[in-house]
User: What shape does this take?
Amino acid sequence: MARSIWTGVVSFGLVSVPVKVYSATQDHDVHFHQFQEGTGDRIRNKRVNERTGREVDYSDIVKGAEVSDGNYVMLDADELDAVAPGRSRSLDIHTFVEQSEIDPIYYQKTYFLGPGSDETVRTYALLRDAMADADRVAIGTLVMRGKEYLAAIRPDKDLLVLETMFFADEIRDPAKELDAVPKRAKPDKKELQVAVQLIDSMTAPWKPEEFRDTYTDRVHELIEAKAEGNEVTVSDEAPTATKAIDLLEALRASVEAASKRRGGKTATTSKAAPKKKAAAATKKSATKKAPAKKAQAKKTAAAKKRAPAKKTAA
Assistant: This one.
């Protein structure tokens, strides 16, 4: 069973909910060691005093912050711990918001939030169910691993999930980072129509298990091939950029290819088809039912003529 990486309480109003934080994700990257080329000699990183050239023990290292050119203020671990707000072990909820209001760029990493103990399951479930009924996400702050985080807590089925977030001043301004930000322009109507059709034809339910890290798979294949002395197959080149004059044709060809993969019908065609069939079926049914009503009316009229007239009492 996984170990929690943070324990504390979630506080909102006068209510405190003991919780434990667990990692929700894991990477599957290939981890490499460093060697000197042409040898089997490992490369090691050492902490070396740049003046004396001697190696320094980790316990003898302190942190320094530059305050002016070449001048530093030295801080040791105890001094940093003294000002760290994490001693309170509290995740304070400041507000509740609608999840649609949060730009995904603010999300950093996902964690599972579990009850602090068996005795606190009831208060944990109360917070989870109240947030689910209100359809809200809690926004708060916590200190974890020596860093303060903005955090979002959201209900997810039986669990609460915590998303660490970037602060607003950590989000870069694209206007300052990009060479040029494309301005909004009125697109060609035909190109836009075919582009939307292409998106429709490629639309499908979200199934994350259908996607794999194919690059890491190929790295593993490369390692196995070299270990066995086999030749390495070269991957395909990256596609070249589509020229503006070829855009419409490229879009149409893409729609046709997507249509073939889906059995010859685009998403727009398959959506419209059932409506037409239903309308035709209704019309046909109505046509068949009409003569039946007329025949029934004729039978009723004939029966009335044949029926003997009732005698009235004298």
Q: What stands out?
A: The first strand starts at residue 6 and ends at 12. Residues 266-314 have pLDDT under 50 and may be disordered.
